[in-house]
Write a structure and sequence with these properties.
- The complex is a heterodimer of chains A (418) and B (427).
- Chain A contains 18 helices and 20 strands.
- Chain A has 418 residues and is of the alpha+beta class.
- Chain A folds into three domains: 2-155, PRC-barrel domain (SH3 type barrels), CATH 2.30.30; 172-272, MgtE N-terminal fold, CATH 1.25.60; 288-404, CBS-domain (Roll), CATH 3.10.580.10.
- In chain A, the strands form five sheets. In chain A, strands 2, 3, 4, 5, 6, 7 and 8 form a seven-stranded mixed beta sheet that branches. Chain A has a four-stranded antiparallel beta sheet with strand order 1-11-12-13.
- The longest helix of chain A has 11 residues, at 261-271.
- Chain B has a single domain, classed as Amino acid/polyamine transporter I.
- In chain B, 78% of the residues lie in helices and 0% in strands.
- Chain B is built from 20 helices and no strands.
- Chain B has helices at 9-20, 22-27, 30-37, 41-54, 59-83, 87-94, 97-128, 133-150, 153-163, 168-176, 181-187, 196-209, 212-225, 232-260, 271-282, 284-317, 331-348, 355-381, 384-387, 394-423.
- Chain B is globular and about 65 Å long.
- Classes of the chains: A alpha+beta (418), B mainly alpha (427).
- The interface between A and B is large, with 40 and 31 residues.
Chain lengths: 418, 427
């Protein structure tokens, strides 16, 4: 078990004992392996810096680096893709601690012999590691204390290195959207862009919904438009509408143009409403039924659906209108059937027997009205109608809550559950 | 249901306004505040004594210094916008660890000394208005602490910007003393006196106007504000405007004392001396304006300095940073910030505190640090891997190197002097 701080600037000796120089860096090749092996070392002899491949290393001790050869290639070292320099690109840089769900700074790097190869096995993030590097070498053994994170449990940020790296971001999928968003906010722009680029569209959409506004705009404007469109499609139309409004108008139009027409329509409808209105925070994906539909009909309809709305707490019963399709809301609301009621009622019961009438709000009302109505009438969602009295959507309890809490409270709340 | 593609006309108009000059207004903050912080208690004392001792003849120096500050601040802001990281962050990642520790420690020491001097400034200004320092200082400390820890970053920035309006008091002061415009113009011509006191004052002027904490603050707040490289052109305007305005304020202070105290041969040491000395000559209002300016400027710096120092420590040591977070989210950040303000306030209240010595000590440390810090900035700004295409152009680099060399020589001369005087006390 060796630490890079113990090795840097040690003398490097050839097989015949002659001085070659001092070690200034260690190169590893980053790939999918848990513990990347050392590819070689960088040695400096006052005039130039050159590379010695790992195959020429005979022994690494705390006093010297012993080579197994006397032939050295003195060519200036030029980096290639996939190669990371531990001192320059990893030491003192930030990485993500996957288990701890936080950003940490690498204060030291741990290496060990695995199958005859020296590999990077972990990073030390303790303050004592920092102290040991600052103190004179004689004092180091007396500073005890380590906090080592296994390299397999650390997410290296490829943007720290100036070459292309094939870093695996699989483990980021373990993070909740809120944790990821917090990390994205805390990192620099380049690093956060790197992370978002590694996520699939759905995870990216979930994460971006929680990311702060300034960072969000920067991230989207830095993205390929096609990708931005794909991510926006995965978002809820409300989040997408809020986001598009903050973007440059021309850019927003281009992204909308690249989205699926249906999704783009949903978002455009929402954009028609003012920013703090009910129309903007409502959901438009509702489950509808006609008054003479039976419980069995409705449940069959739910099962036939490709995707259920989330949250789903009631069915909206609407009158028959000119177009007989249940996909199209725009008819008058008769009432709602709460889901528990639906489940316990007999299969042949028609909707009009188990529905209840509830108050509704207008799409142009300010969004706080939704919270008030929800509270006063003990509802989990309140229907929204337009000026013609037709049902256009519903505001659920969690959306109303999100509108109520001012921004900074919202962030504190999410942090507590982290 | 119809879907309108076009928003109502009034909304479109406001959206257009938003897009054209709103970005510039939104960008105001980091540059303006960093520059204003340079006109703190120590700065005001230096400008006032420069005006009193040399009249208008140092104005040309102020012009050159203002240009130098603008160049340096712009580089710091650009570093923040491109890398998204603060100065301490970048130093930690790109320089040897011992260098990082040295820079951080000297900054911590220097900044703490300056924080103390701000609270002393607040105490002096309060006493000009007849308020005991034992009430004014704790109150001021509490107010700054409260506003900064309770607000989001944007709110805090707005509060500080409003506070900096206080500098208009100096502009008013300068106008009220009815300076001779010909004398001002004459002062803008570079005339170099060779004596040691003259050079000393120039060194003091440089040291107080280009302070490392200003560069750190502008970079950290650009990062916290979330400025990206595409928006940087707006921030660049904020930096230049802020520096020029601060330069104008400094010039007004010099003008105010030059027109009144210099002809009488009055020598002053502290800002409070300047305010009091103005009274019999310039009238009550000029004095009171001066006092208000001192109070406001010291308050502003008493907020910015602890913030800048805490940013620096959090970046290099790795604890969570941010004004916008709560106590639970960033306890170490809040804790360090609180300790810095409390410490500054308490020390400032110690009776018989040798303020001048403290300030001299601080300037010596800053003088040591400034060349190193400037070299670090130049190295980072020219690092292609870090900055991509945003590195300095060749002409830009030449100007920057000229500034670095000049400032470094002045700093080292100043330190040499201080050591010399310390070893051989001047009787």
């Amino acid at each position: 078990m060796l630490f890079i701080s113990q090795l840097l600037h040690l003398p490097v000796k050839a097989r015949d004992g002659g001085d070659v120089g001092r070690i200034v860096d260690i190169m590893v090749r980053i790939d999918d392996r848990n513990y990347p092996p050392i590819g070689g070392i960088l040695v400096s002899d006052r005039r130039r810096t050159f590379f010695i491949p790992a195959s020429h290393l005979a022994e690494i001790s705390l006093h010297t680096i012993q080579l197994n050869t006397t032939q050295i290639n003195l060519e200036q070292f030029v980096r290639r893709n996939g190669e990371v320099l531990l001192n320059k690109d990893v030491l003192d840089h930030q990485i993500i601690d996957i288990n701890g769900r936080r950003i940490v700074r690498v204060n030291d790097i741990q290496m060990a012999l695995i199958d005859h190869d020296y590999c990077v096995v972990g990073v030390d993030v303790s303050p004592q590691a920092l102290l040991r590097r600052l103190a004179p070498r004689s004092a180091s053994p007396h500073i005890i204390g380590r906090q080592v994170i296994s390299w397999a449990d650390a997410q290296y940020l490829a943007s720290a290195a100036p070459v292309q790296l094939k870093v695996s971001y699989n483990r980021l999928a373990e993070f909740s959207a809120v944790d990821l968003a917090r990390i994205v906010d805390a990192l620099s722009f380049r690093e956060s862009a790197e992370i978002v680029a590694a996520l699939d569209d759905e995870t990216a959409a979930e994460t971006l919904e929680e990311v702060s506004d300034e960072r969000l705009v920067d991230l989207l404007e830095g993205m390929d438009q096609e990708r931005a469109a794909d991510i926006l499609e995965e978002m809820t139309p409300n989040a997408a509408a809020d986001l598009l409004e903050d973007l440059d108008a021309e850019f927003a139009k281009q992204i909308l143009a690249r989205m699926e027409p249906e999704e783009a329509e949903d978002v455009k409808e929402l954009l028609a409403y003012a920013e703090d209105s009910v129309g903007r925070s409502m959901m438009t994906d509702l489950v509808l039924a006609f008054p003479d539909d039976t419980v069995a009909d409705v449940i069959a309809g739910l099962r036939a659906r490709h995707e259920l709305p989330d949250p789903l707490t009631e069915i909206y019963v609407v009158e028959h209108s000119d177009h007989d399709s249940l996909q199209h809301i725009g008819s008058s609301l008769v009432g709602i059937v709460r889901l528990p009621k639906l489940l316990v009622s007999h299969a042949s019961t028609p909707m009009h027997e188990i529905l209840e009438e509830v108050p509704s709000i207008h799409a142009s009302d300010p969004s706080e009205i939704a919270a008030r109505v929800l509270g006063e009438y003990n509802l989990t969602a309140v229907p929204v109608i337009d000026d013609d009295g037709a049902l256009v959507g519903a505001v659920s309890v969690d959306d109303a809550l999100a509108e109520l809490l001012p921004d900074i409270w919202h962030r504190r709340g999410t942090r507590n559950f982290g | 249901m119809s879907t309108p593609d076009v928003l109502p006309i009034h909304q479109r108009f406001f959206r257009y306004l938003r897009r054209s000059w709103w970005p510039y207004i939104l960008a105001i903050g980091p540059g303006m505040l960093a520059a204003s912080a340079g006109n703190d208690a120590g700065g005001i004392a230096t400008y006032a004594s420069a005006g009193a001792a040399y009249g208008f003849s140092l104005l040309w120096v102020m012009v050159i210094i203002t240009v130098a500050v603008a160049v340096v601040q712009e580089m710091s802001a650009r570093l923040g916008a491109v890398t998204g990281k603060g100065f301490a962050d970048l130093v930690r990642e790109n320089f040897p660890i011992r260098m990082t520790a040295f820079i951080m420690l000297t900054l911590l020491l220097a900044n703490t000394g300056i924080i103390v001097s701000e609270f002393v400034g607040i105490a002096a200004a309060a006493e000009l208005f007849g308020i005991s320092r034992y009430i004014a200082v704790p109150l001021a400390a509490f107010v700054m602490w409260f506003v900064i820890t309770r607000g989001s970053y944007d709110r805090v920035e707005q509060f500080l910007l409003v506070l900096s309006a206080v500098f208009l008091a100096y502009v008013a002061s300068a106008i009220m003393v009815k300076p001779d415009p010909h004398a001002i113009l004459a002062g803008l011509k570079p005339v170099f006196q060779g004596d040691s006191a003259y050079i000393k004052i120039i060194v003091a002027l440089v040291g107080t106007t280009i302070s490392p904490y200003m560069q750190l603050y502008v970079q950290s707040s650009v990062v916290e504000k979330g400025v990206s490289i595409s928006e940087f052109r707006y921030t660049r305007v904020d930096v230049f405007v802020g520096t020029v305005l601060a330069g104008i304020v400094a010039t007004c202070i010099i003008v105010a004392t030059a027109a009144t105290l210099h002809p009488q041969g009055v020598i002053i040491d502290t800002a409070a001396d300047a305010a009091m000395a103005l009274a019999p000559i310039a009238g009550k209002y000029a004095t009171e304006l001066f006092g208000v300016g001192l109070l406001g400027a010291s308050l502003l710096a008493a907020g910015i300095l602890p913030l800048s120092t805490t940013y620096m420590l959090s970046e290099s040591l790795g604890f969570e940073r941010g004004v916008s977070r709560s106590w639970q989210e960033a306890p170490v950040f809040m804790g360090v910030f609180t300790v810095l303000i409390a410490f500054g306030a308490v020390i400032a209240l110690i009776p018989g505190l040798p303020l001048i010595s403290v300030l001299v000590g601080v300037y010596v440390i800053n003088g040591l640090l400034l060349p190193i810090e400037l070299l670090a900035i130049v190295s980072l700004i020219n690092n292609k891997e870090l900055m991509g295409s945003n590195v300095n152009g060749r002409l830009h680099n030449m100007i920057v190197w000229a500034i670095v060399v000049a400032v470094s020589i002045l700093s080292l001369v100043y330190i040499g002097w201080q050591i010399f005087e310390w070893i051989i006390p001047v009787t």
